[in-house]
Design brief:
Pathway: Quinol/quinone metabolism; 1,4-dihydroxy-2-naphthoate biosynthesis; 1,4-dihydroxy-2-naphthoate from chorismate: step 6/7; Quinol/quinone metabolism; menaquinone biosynthesis. This protein is of the alpha/beta class and about 270 residues long. It is built from eleven helices and twelve strands. The mean pLDDT is about 95. Bound molecules: ligand LW2Y6JES.
Length: about 270
């Protein structure tokens, strides 16, 4: 597969996957998701790989979710190469491959982790963040939601009240605040981020791969029901993206204006 939207590197047993769309703050489009799935599957299949690092190119963003500029008027994102009937992004498959790859995945959050980009780090096994990183959801502001792992699993990590606050208010949280919530494992200076992520990955690579695999599946088993919730949520999102209400959120973001959802409160 031609990798236009990501960088993929394998070195000393560690696979590093970098979302490489810094012009749009590493927002993802259909092709980005396909390439991420490809890289995670390759790392899964490669017996030499013991740990995976997911990060974003540049200093400003880890990932800011779905690329609002590739979202079309009716029905979601513009990607035609994926499975039909969805939102135009195979995001559900990406979530599953990050969860199911039997090797720990470390999110190295180098800047904004927002919207669907925030969900990616939530799903990763571990998160190391740069001091300047910012975290948050934006769905209710831009006419979107992730009712699966992005909300139910988030609530498992930070608790129900905090998860509801994160989604209902759509505010941004610092790396230190996220560490306090248990959403980030470690905070380091920006220039040390990749060194620390590699350091943790090396430590993981020295451990028993079978023990790590069974532990990961054991942690996952306790929240496996969320996959069903995720399917329902993505199917609902595909319907929601066809509405004027959802479109108002996307258009306001593109036009850099305040959003007006008042007329949809009926
Ligand atoms: C990240 C910001 C807070 C940064 O703000 P700021 O520093 O002021 O910089 P900007 O001028 O806003 O941005 C610079 C430049 O980047 C472009 N850009 C940033 N994010 C995106 C994006 N997501 N899509 C397209 N373009 C983006 C921005 O337009 C600027 O370009 P110029 O040409 O220079 O003007 C801020 O940028 C921000 O809030 N970004 C939007 C984040 C966002 O709303 N993301 C979508 C979230 S939707 C969601 O949460 C749904 C739930 C979900 O998880 C999901 C589930 C299933 C499928 C998809 C999604 C999904 O994420 O859509």
């Amino acid at each position: 597969m031609q990798l236009t939207d990501i960088l993929y590197d394998k070195h000393h047993g560690i696979a590093t996957i970098t979302i490489n769309r810094p012009d749009v703050m590493n927002a993802f489009r259909g092709a980005t998701i396909q390439q991420l799935i490809y890289a995670f599957r390759d790392a899964w299949d490669d017996v030499k790989i013991g740990a995976v690092i997911l990060t974003g190119a540049g200093q400003r963003a880890f990932c800011t979710g779905g690329d609002q500029k590739t979202k079309v008027d009716v029905g979601g994102y513009d990607f035609n190469g994926g499975l039909g009937g969805g939102i135009g992004l195979e995001i559900e498959q990406l979530h599953l491959v990050i969860r199911n790859i039997p090797k720990p995945v470390i999110a190295a959050v180098n800047g904004y982790a927002i919207g669907g980009g925030h969900v990616l780090h939530v799903i990763c096994d571990l998160t190391i963040a740069a001091e300047h990183a910012k975290f948050g959801q934006t769905g209710p502001t831009v006419g979107s939601f992730d009712g699966g792992f992005g909300s139910s699993y988030l609530a498992r990590i930070v608790g129900d009240k905090k998860a509801r606050e994160i989604w209902y208010l759509c505010e941004q949280y610092s790396a230190a605040e996220c560490q306090e919530m248990g959403l980030v494992n470690k905070v380091v200076a920006g220039e040390l981020l990749m060194d620390e992520a590699l350091n943790w990955a090396q430590k993981i690579c020295a451990k028993s791969p079978t023990a790590l695999k069974i532990l990961k599946y054991s942690f996952n088993a306790d929240t496996a029901n969320i996959q069903g919730i995720s399917q329902l949520s993505m199917a609902s999102l595909a319907l929601f993206y066809k509405t004027d209400e959802s479109n108002e959120g996307r258009e306001a973001f593109i036009e850099k204006r305040a959003v007006n959802f008042a007329k949809f409160r009926k």
